[in-house]
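Tokens as discussed.
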């Protein structure tokens, strides 16, 4: 397991004294919880009844299955250790390094033991010449790893260093208060973190240095739909000037009406003025 800080060692010692077990038994449960991402533990220790299992909010099993006092002791230890792990910005990678695509590391929260959260684990490489992040960033407040991704958080400098497949990129964390980092498997190795704004993609942070190793290729926006051009009405056929123009369909009726009016005028049924007015009206329709 990653080395404990002084505060972490003190918390393990306090648990050992309160639950009347050895520090080795407490460390066994702590490692089992790290392997179970803080929510479950599978362990073996003589002081804990041999082999056993614990699951958050549910099952507690010990080798001495009828020893209810031992079950209560294991449940209390695991519950307090799980709460303490939940207060860690980062926890060590599980000892077996299982492939957990998208599995979230334990998130920041309110620590147990009735006090403020403490840092259990010594940061990974110490920020010296042997560190994988740029030396000018100093010592991270927390660091961790998952699958092929490592990360280190520097709240004072507002920087997050991320290493993917040996390539390091450094990001400006802006006003985010980072409480956990996770990786999702798949093309692009998507990396997200949690802050007071929820789950945020690392891609949304301004990059300070690096070769954009964790950035995914941008997805091209879909091409706008092409609006079909309105169909043009066919050009009217040009009239052949050599052909006689056809007479309107009502032309014959108009001339017939004028002839009837002339007959009525001749017989005295209408006056000359009425005939002239009606004739003008009919002719205007041609």
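Sequence:
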């Amino acid at each position: 397991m990653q080395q404990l800080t002084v505060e972490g060692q003190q918390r393990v010692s306090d648990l050992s004294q309160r639950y009347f077990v050895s520090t080795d038994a407490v460390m066994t449960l702590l490692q089992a919880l790290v392997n179970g991402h803080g929510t479950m533990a599978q362990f073996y220790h003589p002081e804990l009844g041999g082999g056993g299992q614990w699951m958050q909010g549910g099952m507690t099993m010990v080798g001495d299955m009828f020893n209810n006092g031992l079950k209560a002791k294991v449940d209390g230890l695991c519950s307090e250790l799980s709460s303490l792990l939940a207060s860690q910005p980062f926890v060590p990678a599980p000892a077996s390094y299982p492939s957990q695509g998208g599995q979230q590391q334990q998130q920041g929260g309110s620590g147990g033991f009735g006090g403020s959260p403490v840092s259990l684990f010594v940061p990974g490489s110490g920020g010296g010449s042997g560190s994988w992040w740029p030396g000018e960033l100093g010592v991270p407040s927390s660091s961790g790893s998952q699958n092929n991704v490592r990360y280190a958080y520097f709240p004072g400098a507002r920087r997050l260093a991320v290493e993917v497949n040996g390539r390091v990129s450094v990001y400006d964390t802006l006003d985010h208060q980072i409480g956990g980092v996770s990786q999702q498997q798949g093309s692009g190795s998507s990396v997200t973190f949690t802050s007071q704004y929820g789950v945020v993609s690392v891609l949304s942070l301004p990059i300070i240095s690096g070769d954009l190793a964790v950035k995914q290729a941008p997805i091209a926006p879909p091409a706008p739909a092409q609006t079909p051009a309105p169909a043009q009405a066919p050009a009217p056929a040009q009239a052949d000037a050599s052909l006689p123009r056809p007479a309107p369909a009502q032309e014959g009726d108009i001339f017939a009406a004028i002839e009837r009016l002339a007959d009525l005028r001749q017989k005295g049924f209408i006056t000359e003025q009425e005939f002239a007015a009606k004739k003008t009206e009919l002719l205007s329709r041609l």
